[in-house]
Amino acid sequence: MSETETATEAPKRGRPRPQDAVERDEKVYTFVTDEPVTVRDIVAESGLERSHVYLSLIRLREQRRVDRVKNDSTGATTRFWQRTG
What domains appear along the chain, each with residue ranges and CATH number? Predict the structure, then answer.
């Protein structure tokens, strides 16, 4: 174990993410609220590419910061995203 790691920290896996990806994830997170929102909404409001928004949402879901939900009120099969508790 190195001097910078403590016994309670899990070792980091893989290569570090580029700073622009970290910033993009945080930008996408600001558009996800407690109310369900679609990828299309995030793309329209953020100006980011759809593929980048999806990648950010996947990483945010892995971090348990957002979750994909179904909004039954629309009757559609559209997937929505919202922040986790």
Answer: 19-71+78-83 (1.10.10.10)
Q: Which one, of 74, 77, 79, 76, lies nearest residue 57 by Cα?
A: 79
Q: What is the largest CA-CA distance in the chain?
A: 54
pLDDT in tens, the chain (85 residues): 455 544 555 566 788 889 999 999 999 999 999 888 999 999 999 999 999 999 999 999 999 999 998 866 656 667 899 999 7
pTM as predicted: 0.76
